[in-house]
Amino acid sequence: MEESPRSGMSSPEAKVGMQVEDLWDIQEPQLSPSEKLNSCFENIPVSAFPRDPSSVAIEIKSDATLAEAVQILSENKLLSAPVVDVDAQEDASWIDRYIGIVEFAGIVVWILHQSEISAMRKRSQPIVTKPMITESEANNGIALAAAAAEVAYAVRKIDLGTETAAPTSGTFFESLTSSEFYRNTKVRDIAGSFRWAPFLALPKSDSFLTMLLLLSKYKMKSLPVVDLGERKIDNVITQSSVIHMLAECVGLHWFESWGTKKLCELGLPLMKPSHIVKVYEDEPVLQAFKLMRKRGIGGVPVIESGGTKAVGNISIRDIQFLLTTPDIYSEYRSITAKNFLTAVRNFLEEHEEASPMLTGMITCKRDDTVKEVILMLDSEKIHRIYVVDDDGNLEGVVTLRDIISKLVHEPRGYFGDFFDGVLPLPSNSRV
Asked: For 327-380, how does the pLDDT look when each residue is reduced to its tens digit (9 = 90+)?
């Protein structure tokens, strides 16, 4: 007798998949597979998405330093975390309890700003005898407040321009991270917010379809789910957690009807080879992070000089290695993309730390199935996979967002004025 696809499926993610399966079986037969999936996901509330206690518990206080925030994000393998206002009243609504999100993307802008300041001073002075900010200046309350205000403005308003990022010496980040300026820059100075609210959030009653569209078409990296009654974040749903849920649904009929399609059948990769955002191995490593921030992407391939083959990948979270291990670049005259990859890989191997940076380039072919790619992304804990031809030349990239975007589609007029008010303003809000 044929074994049921539900046999052995006991994980919380698989149970969500079985909810989709039950809804799939009762859909109108004239609906297309895409319309069926849309209907299924519209009828499941986001409150059903499995909670990740470790990520929900991580909140960063607004008076924490940038150094402390980097350490927390790094240790917990997070791209971002909500920032709690230490001055908020005990009965504050969620809108008043949080001031925003601190994320590696914002930290990238802060670093780019500091490197540009350093580069400008070097261009104007043949010999730099004065550090970026002296200890006496950093210890001066007025100077520090002014510097913090400048950083806050830079993070939110800075025009990254079209020029290549400034080269940095091998000792730049040692100097930066040991400065009082770095130690005293507060999270509140670089936390980003979303219009009238600290971040875009979903009430627990909203649907999976809304969540999936926001994580794909609308390019959200993560979505806090808010418990309005408890005035706090109940869950944080990320692109990675959605991919993990899909990986746990392998074998279910609705998943197999979609997941067994080849990438090329779904129009993946979306981008032509000539449009791939990339850096060459001899370019400054900060150019990789600048491109990520400017183009709103989570990683870039590092291409061999004068060639078309990728030799590595740098993701937005790798910015942490410039701040948490600044001494590993001291032997280099400048930190190029190649030097960065070499130094970080050596560090990880020496300390026996698991990381996607040690696995090399994870690649696939156009005729691989969506299921195969999902399983690779989930097992390797990566956010993108590179599509190559038979000779190893880069043909495209497939991201978590790309895959989710092929799972559902946005019905006409679905969101309406959604972005003008994601949630109703609480009666006790000061916004």
From this structure: 999 999 999 999 999 999 999 999 988 888 888 789 999 999 999 999 999 999
Half-sphere exposure of 426 (CA within 13 A, CB side): 20
Start-to-end CA distance of the chain, whole Å, equals 62
Angle at 18 between CA 2 and CA 16, to 5 degrees: 150
Label residue 164 by pLDDT band (50, 70, 90): confident
Tokens of 276: 């791939």
Neighbour-count burial for 88-118, b at 16+ CB within 10 Å, e otherwise: beeebbbbbbbbbbbbbbbbbbbbbbbbbeb
Which class for 168: exposed (0-12), middle (13-18), buried (19 or more C-beta within 10 A)?
buried
Element (H, E) at 137: helix 135-139
Cα Rg, the chain, nearest whole Å:
23
Neighbours of 422 (CB within 10 A): 21
Q: Tokens 């609504």 identify what position?
A: 93
C-alpha–C-alpha distance, residues 136 and 345, integer Å: 37
CB atoms within 10 A of CB 380: 12
